[in-house]
Amino acid sequence: MDSILVTGNGPLDGQIPIAGAKNACLTLMPATLLSEEPLTLTNAPRLSDIKTMTALLQSLGAEVTTLQDGQVLAMSSHDLDSHVADYDIVRKMRASILVLGPMLARDGHAVVSLPGGCAIGARPVDLHLKALEAMGAELELKEGYVHAKAPGGLKGGVVEFPLVSVGATENALMAATLAKGTTVLKNAAREPEIVDLAQCLRKMGAQIEGEGTSEITIQGVDRLHGATHPVVTDRIELGTFMLAPAICGGEVECLGGRIDLVEAFCERLDAAGVSVEETEAGLKVARKNGRVRAVDVVTEPFPGFPTDLQAQMMALMCTAEGTSVLEEKIFENRFMHAPELMRMGAKIDVHGGTATVTGVERLKGAPVMATDLRASVSLILAGLAAEGETLVNRVYHLDRGYERVEEKLGNVGARIERVQGE
Ligand code: EPZ
After folding, report:
1. Last residue of a domain, which of 206, 230, 254?
2. 8-state DSSP, 374
3. What is the number of structural domains in the chain?
4. The pTM is what?
5. Max intra-chain CA distance, the chain
6. For residue range 301-350, what is the model confidence (pLDDT) as tens digits?
7. Is 127 in the pocket of ligand 1 (CB under 6 A)?
8. Which portions of this protein are annotated as coiled-coil regions (predicted)?
9. Does the annotation flag 334 for ligand binding?
10. Which of 30, 71, 80, 413 could form a disulfide with 98 if both were Cys (CB 3.0 to 4.6 A apart)?
11. 257 is in which domain, residue-wise?
């Protein structure tokens, strides 16, 4: 298992290219199941999660060819020879559940393993299942698998989400494109990844209105055709790398960064004394003067502050002047980075979904353990600003969501290297 060794090394300077969004790509890829014609994605990120989704689609009989060093995914699912998404793949990546809606919509049957929980929470899929039932699906849970049927195809219906769910909105949106009649998704998620999915589905011939708002209306069509679509910029990778100059000092330009993807996050950076400037090429970030100020953070569904940037923001607050209160309102157990940051000298008090951070002048490098994707990168950010060496273990979490992180940070002056594990 590889580790990443980071040595605190002062201000950063230079440019970091931002890749296509993992969480957009993981819902765009299953969309290939909705059509017998080819779907090609460009600007795809090169991540282990994309490889997992590729393997899942191939296990169903879809063809997925990666071109241009993984940045282009040429897919086609002319005919599927399996409709079973196996536990072995699904347990590795929860997003696998996103093949359920498309398979059911296309062929009227699907068998998908329940994903099981993960480090940050139980993460049930009940909202996915209820949405499909509202479209006429018959579901049966057997030995850890969802057996879904839609004899005669799915029918349009009204889906009222009791809470905002990105994945359930995506599953329902994809299924509704081929349902007979009109489907309305109420209290739908508004994330940019859903807007990106809707735009791709529309290119494939889907009739969708309202994406990006909390009510999406879909008029089902008989079939969808192929398309080519660029994956939207990854707002979480963007926010993560914007925090590097904020925590270390210096100035970094995030190429391809779009302010509309990170407005709530930028509002907090501004309050903390970090400047963000829109340039021709992206977003230029610098600390205005000296230590950042402590600010409070509450995670919310988009357009609120993203839960996927909470761990990274906590790392910054560990070195801020003053006390910051971070409230995690999306997942029930998303502070596992806190004890690891405390090993580096951070002062953090966790009570339920609230973490109170009292900033310290300087963190101290230490061996730490990555527990989930975003926690692992928050430890790297802390290591960039800490005195001495920080060894982040179990970085397979990191490789799920960040392509070549040591190269991107190394190119702007960070002292960071990957240590091959045994
Ligand atoms: C997506 O997960 C993202 N993953 C997550 O990013 C992100 O943290 C999350 O949305 C919230 O923004 C992908 O897009 C692949 P949800 P998802 O359904 O769809 C509860 C990362 O680091 N819920 O919006 O699984 C759930 O437990 C990952 O890239 C139900 O109760 O998130 C959670 O508390 C981590 N029943 C809340 O809703 C359901 O059926 C929001 O979950 C579904 C969800």
Report:
1. 230
2. H
3. 2
4. 0.97
5. 65
6. 999 999 999 999 999 999 999 999 999 999 988 999 999 999 999 999 99
7. yes
8. none
9. no
10. 30
11. 3-19+233-419
